[in-house]
Amino acid sequence: MTPLTRVALTCVPDCASAWLRFGRSLWEDAPEDRSRCVYFPPGAVFARVEHGGDGRQRLAVLRAAGPGERVVCLPGIAPGAQLLLHATTASKTAQALSAIAAIEAQRIPPEEVSEDYWRVLHQRLVAGAALPVYTAAEHAAATLRRSLLS
Predict the structure, then answer these.
(1) How far is the C-alpha of 10 from the C-alpha of 76, rounded, in Å?
(2) C-alpha span between 96 and 141 (Å, rounded)
(3) Exposed, middle or buried, 30 (CB in 10 Å: 0-12/13-18/19+)?
(4) Residue 116 belongs to what H/E stretch?
(5) According to its UniProt record, what is one Pfam family this protein matches (predicted)?
(6) If you ran DSSP here, which 8-state letter would residue 110 be given?
(7) 8 Å CB contact between 91 and 57
(8) Cβ-Cβ contacts under 8 Å for 21 (sequence gap 6 or more)
(9) Contact, 81 vs 54, CB < 8 A?
(10) How far apart are CA 71 and CA 4, in angstroms?
(11) Would you say 136 and 106 are in contact if contact means Cβ atoms under 8 Å apart?
(12) DSSP states along 17-78
């Protein structure tokens, strides 16, 4: 049996909430009225956004890890995942969400974007540098590279 990565999502009005920004889960369940869990297979890329009642926002773009791969332990994600991008302030989260929207405007599913792009975007956010643009040509090259490696 392939281990799955479980991602907890919540919605509590005027309090903390966490939701999935993008990603294709295998299945989901709703253990409680205001929460649900989604499950991803190894290699799946997804983004989780957290919003605190105090206006604090965080965005994480993650890759579900397979057996034996190193993971980062984050609250609400079990057993953990590989961190591709992590925005921890409201302004950096907004910048990252804008980059995701720009990708979607090109009709590119964000979960299919090159993992290297997410890492570069993270480093640019941390450095306060201009954010890279993900182009259709770059996506085509990444898709071809992925198909040759599999």
Answers:
(1) 10
(2) 22
(3) exposed
(4) helix 115-127
(5) DUF2840
(6) G
(7) no
(8) 46, 47, 48, 49, 59, 97, 100, 110
(9) no
(10) 13
(11) yes
(12) EEEEEE---SEEEEEETTEEEEEE-TT-EEEEEEE-TTS-EEEEEEE---TT---EEETTEE
Distance CA 18, CA 27 (A): 17
Instruction: Examine the pLDDT at 1 and tell me if it is beyond 60.
Output: no
Give the pLDDT of residue 15: 77
Instruction: Specify the amino acid at residue 74.
Output: L
Q: Which amino acid is at 107?
A: R
Q: Which two tokens stand for residue 143?
A: 């898709």
Token pair, residue 101, equals 């929207």
CA pair distance 147, 150, nearest whole angstrom: 5
Q: Quick check: 113 and 120 in contact, CB under 8 A?
A: no
Nearest to 132 by CA among 116, 143, 144, 112: 116
pLDDT, average across residues 22-26: 95
Question: The whole model's pTM is what?
Answer: 0.92
Give every CB contact of residue 78 below 8 A, 6+ residues apart in sequence.
5, 6, 8
